[in-house]
Amino acid sequence: MDGEHPQINAVLTNRTGPPPFDKPDADITLRSSDHVDFRVRRHILYEASPVFESILSIPPSQEEGSCPVVDLPEDSWTLHTLLLICYPMSRKKRLGHKSLPQLEAAIAAAKKYDMELPLEVLVDELLNSGSRWKSIEIWAVGCRLTLEDVASQAAGWVSMLPLGKPDVRSLGRMEGISAGNYYRLCTTCKKGQLVPTSPLLEPSKKSDQLAGREVDGLAAARPQFRSKMPYPDLECCSADGVVFLVHKCILGMASAVLADRIAAILSPALSQNAGGGASRTSESLTSLSLEEDASVLSEFFSLCYPGEHELSHSPSLCIAVLHAAKKYAATAVEGKAIQHWEVVAKVTSLPAYLVSSRADFRDCARVAARYTLSNPLDNVYHPEMEHSPALAYCHLLAYHENCRTLVKKLIMQAFPDESKTNNEEDEELLRRQRARAERFGTHVTASVVKRAALTKRYTWLYRYVEGRVFKAGIYPTHTPPRSDVCAFEAAMAEGQWDGSSDPFLSSLNRVDAVVCNLTARLDEVALQF
Fold it and tell me: What is the arithmetic mean of pLDDT over 332-358?
């Protein structure tokens, strides 16, 4: 086993740590999560860790006939490593061979207990453990443990690898790494920076402020829900103390769960009145407390009532309303919220994808992912990345790449073999014949002129279609291209086709057919989760 230590394995059954942590005159015992006892001297711990000093100031549990015992959540490997560094021993004996997961666990514990020397020694060992061939794994450790120096140095190594972009396959599910971390790593790799010029574990303040104002402004501008119907008979109190005046019948019809909760709070009041208790005045209303915040309830109640309501474009708020609709079994409200999600995803496609993916609303994430195809993701940042897992962002990048690959494949299939000729060779052949004609007074072969012109047209057509697909955008609800933006009109406008009946006409026709069918064909591309 990698990093196996025979002394530790031997003591797992004995419950006593290896030397020098087995001395009977020690004054404190640290017990690991796998029940290995390390007998240490508390003054060494006092000097090594202010956190341990605080912990040991509280009287620990004490077994009869033994020194006090402190139970810790770390395993024996981690405690053994930290204690060896604190004790006056040689570096080789202190560390030995440790795998990356073991080093990560030890560094996390050193940070937790504020142990400066172990942290310094272990970070140096981490950066030297795998050199540059484990750079992506070391970068991941730096992200998870918020070690800026480790993440920056490893990112510089990753940018020097001949892959062009980070290969994260060895990181599995990329737990503990945010989409913002991965975005900044990709940016560093594109720039080829051996030493990153900006922090890798925190966002750019400028981009954070700009994007944050956009989303927060949408959410903050929302007015609180007020029913236009007269005579409300129910007070709904939000988790943050805001009271909404609503109608029992409206909420009861919208949600079976809320109908049961309303009935439950009405029963005691009815029983009290029937028993001769004080009657309710017209000003006293039944009160129902709900677990959602006021912003969520405001949107939720708006969808419960009939009529058109202006709803927020905040993806987080829309997902929270969808979650509330599922929780309260409000089917009609859920349907309206899903319809509104189409609008939200179109306006804020990237944050909408990140929010819905994080909440595991996969259908909503697929809708938002389709809307992100309208623009490239390169150099596009949003603060929501800091709260979203890197794996979701990687899946979106892979989805974009797969869509681009499919579109290019379909476009090339629509072209005849003539479109695949080498334009540079045809231009060179035409140049040579013209030079020969000027020198010897001969004529340029008509076939050469026609071939060069045709190849030039096909080059224009490929660029036209590729630009149209990725610049104009592809939306799932859009209709096929109108006649005024088809390839025929574009070719005539740019002087690429004079209306004659030649093979280029058939190519235009095939390309238009492909473009009209692209949206449907993109349904073949799966989005991973």
Answer: 94
Are the beta carbons of 393 and 351 closer than 8 angstroms? no
Residues 1, 98 contacting (CB under 8 angstroms) = no
The answer to whether residues 91 and 122 touch, using CB atoms and an 8 Å cutoff, is no
The model carries a pTM of 0.77
377 and 469 housed in the same domain = no
pLDDT in tens, 364-390: 999 999 888 877 788 889 999 999 999
Q: Distance (Å, rounded) from C-alpha 192 to C-alpha 195?
A: 9
Helix (H, G, I), strand (E, B) or coil at 435: helix
The span from the CA of 214 to the CA of 288, in Å, is 34
Instruction: Give the containing element (helix H, strand E) for 237.
Output: strand 234-237
Domain count, the chain: 3
Residue 217, in any domain of the structure: no
User: CA gyration radius for the chain?
Assistant: 34
From its phi and psi, is residue 382 left (phi > 0), alpha (psi between -120 and 50) or beta? beta
Contact 518, 407 (CB under 8 A): yes
End-to-end CA distance of the chain: 32
Consecutive H or E run containing 243: strand 243-246
Domain extent, residue 186, equals 6-191
Closest CA to 199 of 209, 210, 190, 188: 188
CATH number of residue 66's parent domain: 3.30.710.10
The pLDDT assigned to 25 comes to 87
Q: Residue 363 — pLDDT band, cuts 50, 70, 90?
A: very high
- Determine the pLDDT at residue 427: 54
d(CA 42, CA 70): 11
168-217 per-position pLDDT tens digit: 888 888 999 999 999 999 888 887 776 777 788 888 665 444 444 444 43
Q: Is the dihedral of CA 135, 137, 143, 149 positive or negative?
A: negative
**DSSP of 137-148:** HHHHHHHHTT-H
Distance between CA atoms of 193 and 189, rounded to whole angstroms? 7
Q: Which of 324, 331, 319, 323 is nearest to 357 (CA)?
A: 319
- Structural domain includes residue 163: yes
Residues 439 and 512 in one domain: yes
Mean of all residue pLDDT scores within the chain = 77
CA-closest candidate to residue 181, choices 370, 373, 366, 392: 392
DSSP 16: B
Same domain? 150 vs 17: yes
Q: Of 382, 412, 436, which one is at a domain's C-terminal end?
A: 382
For residues 297 and 319, give the distance between their C-alpha atoms in angstroms, rounded to a whole number.
12
Q: What is the mean pLDDT of residues 50-57?
A: 87
Q: Which two tokens stand for residue 167?
A: 């290969």
